[in-house]
């Protein structure tokens, strides 16, 4: 091979057919320019480029591969400053660094296809990649950067495509200029990119398994304004204070996307957002007018105003203890503040309200206590809200034989119980087959509730009902009741009793106990009958 355009001589020392060295001094180099080697190459040939800087514009040739010798050090070893273009056929590059030089790094026109693998591409003074034809540009395992404000990574202006697969792209220049697709498509797969993207005309962006970090430039990652739908799947988007996606018109479809925008609206615009399995990390809402959805997951929902009822909210911003929500009109929720103790919920003019219990015939369960080897069973907070109280005792039994059930009252809500020698009077009647036995006292320190002595064997238990009349009155508090029991000899008895607290004072607590031992078992239920 004689010396000529871009040639240094014959390669007599290597198996490579074409070797390019910019200084022409390396033994075995066949060319000093990449274009010279391409002109001499044929379909299927590989051109090896030694480290150096090659400032030239290159026109590719179908079936030819250009590769750097030291692909692991391409950033500063094998650099092409200029444009690589292709108008027909398929041209390949690998292991090279490409910088703009007033024009694109890569340009496909016509039916040209460019495949770029393991290259570093930097937009220094112009947009980096352009496809204006029906062919394609495929970037695989490439890294890149935007070094200057005002330039973008790529543009696709015809029916062809630009693809990013397993790529990583930085934005040291802080450029907010979006890479564009006005026709055809930009495809992004398993890549990490710090650049915004936009569509117009019939152009689309299709994204799978990728991460976009535009927090440094606070610019929407996707701006869609196309007649054709763009898609995003299994990806994560961070746009800083800007919305992650802006849909000016058209449709964006998203599935399993995590959105990190801190803007009030993670997605905004007048277009349509069709989505499923969306996670909003910092934002509050998705607001395109044509939105349809499947599931949205929100880590922390923060709203400046209450969420309207028609969107599943309450329309309320504050609540107090006991508030109840109800529909005060069509699609309108209102709060009903808690009533006073003893009130009941009623309906007036079609809406609920609180009112005093009426009719005087409804017992309200207030409290339940279950004995389990208990020294006493007590009920406190008796009040004027109830005219009468009922204590229903079921299967009460002491743990000591020959014991009687007793009770006392309190006027300090159970801090102490009245136990003076003349505080109470009582009478108990228990009929037998031939007579009625009576036990009574006109002055005692307790009210006895069983004339006969209870047993502690199986089934020797006492069930009784105790009525306490108007304990909040300044009159004497009176009790009466009845029950049945089996005593320590297993005899069965009916019991009727009555008693009185011999003092005109409010009673607000009562206590039950045995004169000996503990209350082994038994259930005590306190009911109240409304005072009005």
What does this structure look like?
The protein is an all-beta fold. 2% of the residues lie in helices and 48% in strands. The protein contains two helices and 49 strands. The strands form six sheets. The chain has a 22-stranded parallel β-sheet that branches. The protein has an eleven-stranded parallel β-sheet with strand order 4-7-10-13-16-19-22-25-27-29-31. An eight-stranded antiparallel β-sheet has the order 38-49-40-45-46-47-42-43, with no helix packed on it. The longest helix is centred in the first third of the chain and has 7 residues, at 34-40. The chain is rod-shaped and about 135 Å long. The mean pLDDT is 88.
How would you describe this structure in keywords?
532 residues; mainly beta; Pectate Lyase C-like; Jelly Rolls; 11-stranded parallel beta sheet; 2 helices; 2% helix
């Amino acid at each position: 091979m004689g010396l000529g355009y871009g040639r240094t001589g014959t390669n007599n020392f290597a198996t490579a057919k074409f070797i390019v060295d910019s200084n022409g001094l390396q033994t075995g180099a066949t060319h000093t320019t990449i274009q010279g080697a391409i002109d001499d190459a044929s379909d299927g040939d590989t051109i090896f480029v030694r480290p150096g800087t090659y400032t030239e514009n290159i026109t590719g040739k179908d079936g030819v591969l250009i590769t750097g010798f030291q692909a692991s050090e391409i950033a500063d070893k094998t650099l092409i400053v200029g444009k690589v273009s292709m108008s027909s056929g398929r041209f390949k590059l690998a292991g090279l660094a490409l910088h703009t030089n007033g024009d694109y790094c890569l340009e496909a026109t016509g039916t040209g296809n460019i495949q770029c693998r393991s290259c570093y591409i930097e937009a220094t003074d112009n947009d980096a990649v352009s496809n204006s034809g029906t062919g394609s540009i495929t970037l695989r395992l490439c890294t890149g950067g935007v070094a200057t404000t005002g330039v973008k990574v790529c543009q696709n202006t015809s029916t062809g495509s630009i693809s990013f697969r397993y790529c990583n792209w930085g934005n040291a220049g802080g450029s907010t200029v979006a890479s564009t697709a006005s026709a055809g498509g930009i495809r992004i797969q398993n890549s990490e990119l710090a650049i915004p993207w936009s569509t117009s005309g019939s152009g689309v962006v299709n994204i799978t398994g990728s991460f976009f970090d535009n927090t440094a430039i606070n610019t929407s990652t996707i701006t869609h304004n196309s007649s054709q739908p763009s898609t995003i799947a299994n990806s994560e988007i961070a746009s800083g204070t800007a919305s992650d996606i802006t849909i000016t018109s058209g449709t964006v479809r998203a599935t399993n996307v995590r959105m990190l925008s801190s803007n009030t609206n993670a997605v905004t615009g007048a277009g349509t957002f069709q989505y499923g399995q969306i996670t909003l990390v910092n934002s509050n809402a998705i607001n395109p007018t044509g939105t349809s959805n499947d599931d949205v997951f929100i880590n922390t929902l923060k709203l400046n105003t209450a969420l309207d009822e028609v969107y599943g909210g309450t329309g309320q911003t504050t609540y107090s203890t006991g508030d109840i929500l109800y529909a005060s009109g069509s699609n309108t929720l209102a709060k009903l503040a808690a009533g006073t103790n003893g009130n009941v919920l009623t309906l007036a003019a079609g809406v609920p309200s609180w009112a005093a219990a009426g009719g005087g015939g409804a017992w309200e369960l207030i409290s339940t206590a279950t004995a389990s080897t208990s020294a006493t069973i007590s009920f406190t907070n008796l009040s004027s809200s109830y005219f009468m109280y009922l204590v229903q005792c079921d299967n009460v039994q002491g743990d000591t034989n020959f014991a009687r059930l007793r009770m006392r009252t309190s006027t300090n809500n159970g801090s102490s119980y009245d136990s003076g020698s003349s505080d109470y009077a009582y009478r108990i009647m228990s009929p037998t087959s031939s007579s009625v036995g009576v036990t009574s006292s006109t002055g005692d320190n307790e009210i006895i509730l069983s004339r006969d002595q209870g047993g502690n064997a199986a089934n020797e238990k006492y069930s009784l009902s105790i009525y306490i009349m108007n304990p909040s009155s300044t009159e004497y508090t009176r009790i009466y009741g009845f029950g049945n029991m089996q005593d320590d000899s297993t005899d069965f008895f009916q019991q009727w009793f009555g008693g009185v607290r011999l003092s005109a004072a409010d009673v607000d607590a009562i206590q039950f106990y045995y004169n000996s031992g503990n209350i082994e078992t038994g259930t005590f239920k306190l009911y109240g009958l409304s005072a009005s």
